[in-house]
Structure formats: structure tokens, C-alpha cells
Amino acid sequence: MSDALKEQQVLNAAERLVAAFASTNTEAYFAAFSEDASFVFHTLPEPLLSRAAYEKLWAEWLADGFEVLECTSSKQFVSLQGDVAIFVHDVRTQLRVAGEESTSYERETIVFREVEAGRWLACHEHLSAVAQ
């Protein structure tokens, strides 16, 4: 398979992940991650070391009135490393939590792993704040 085709598959996987997040679609969002995925968010004091740990936190957020209003991705870059791909982009997110809206600007790295021919799942996500 050509690198161009693999890169497009990764971009498609990232687009589905971002779209699921943008619509607060819990099932589709977490389906984009492997079970052993890890997460590093600048807003949390420590990493989340499994998808289950993040799903638990996500459920708590939802119970607190968490809703994604909009999420846009820009400045996308893919680096292929065999059956692993590193996807980097800038993210602008509008959220509503307990009735209050906020906008964040972040840079995100998502590591994807090809789990079967043409199927890529995110296995690591790192989110950093971007100064505005």
C-alpha cells in the first residue's frame, strides 16, 4: 500500500474522531481509540492510562452538563512510521459545561496504529494549550 493511501486513511480516521468529539457522540468517539490508549491532557494532573479511564471521566463530565458545541481542526500533519502514524493538528473547541460556554485553543498529537489493513485506531492522545 502506498504512503499516500496510508496518509489519507489516517486523515480519514482523524476526521471521524474529531467529528465524533464535535458532536459529543460518546460511542463513535471512543470507538476511534484502542482499549490500551493513553491520554495526556494539560487540564488534568496526571495521564489517563486506558480508554476505560477516559470513558469514566467523560461520563462524569457528561453528568456535569458537558457538551461540545464545535470543534475545528487545522494545520494537519501526518508522519508515517510503519504501522504507526503521528497526526498533529491545531484544535479550536467550544464547550458548554453546566450552562457556561468556553473556547479553547490547543495543539494535539494523536498516535494512530494500523490494527488491520486500512483500519487505524488512536492509541495515544496528547493535548497542549496554545497561547492566544
UniProtKB/TrEMBL annotation:
Pfam families for this protein:
SnoaL_3 (PF13474)
Please state every residue range assigned to the domain named SnoaL-like: 10-131
User: Any idea what this protein is called?
Assistant: SnoaL-like domain-containing protein
